[in-house]
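Notes from hallway chat w/ T.B., transcribed later so I don't forget. T.B. wanted the structure written out for a chain they're using in a teaching module, and asked if we could keep both sequence and structure tokens in one place. Agreed to drop them here.
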Amino acid sequence: MQPLWLSAGEALDGTVMLLRYSGPVRTALQQLKFNSRRALLELLAVECAAAGKGLPSKFKNVLQQTDVFIVPIPTAENRRLERGFDIPQFLFSWLKAEYVWIELLLRTRETIPQYGLGPQERKINLENCFSIGGTVTGKTIVIVDDIFTTGATMEEAARTLKTAGAAKVYGLAMCGSIENYGQEQIKKHLQSEI
């Protein structure tokens, strides 16, 4: 699969999914996240970097702007400590050499894992769970995370960043499942590609 550009959501100005969340990628990420199979981390980071070479031109244009920050979605502290690593940090390390990587998003409270929650439950679970640890006024932000399913995590992060003054907020996920994104967003995306 070529990386997929999704048009704007509620707070996101667009999102790119590098790979589909299915087959071996899904299995590897689940093993990494839920069984702490750290050996898979490097393999997935290589896959992520390789897929990143095919970024859609719309997204390449975003990255070429001035004042662009790459901001990882922070892993809940208890899960990071349990695993011993932060997945987005490793998966997107290939961006650190070319772009300003800054950990601006902070978790204000623990959330339960999103896996197994429905779209509305995910939204409620994440409400007001982020704060900002720096200045974002007028900046373009690219949020990076491992999986994009319903978009709830990135939407909440984008909402927080825009409330703090960010001009534009985009998402970049290693993999995603457009099927879970919502019928209205899928229609919107497909219309924007015509």
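Follow-up for T.B.: The longest strand covers residues 140-148. Might be a good example for the class.
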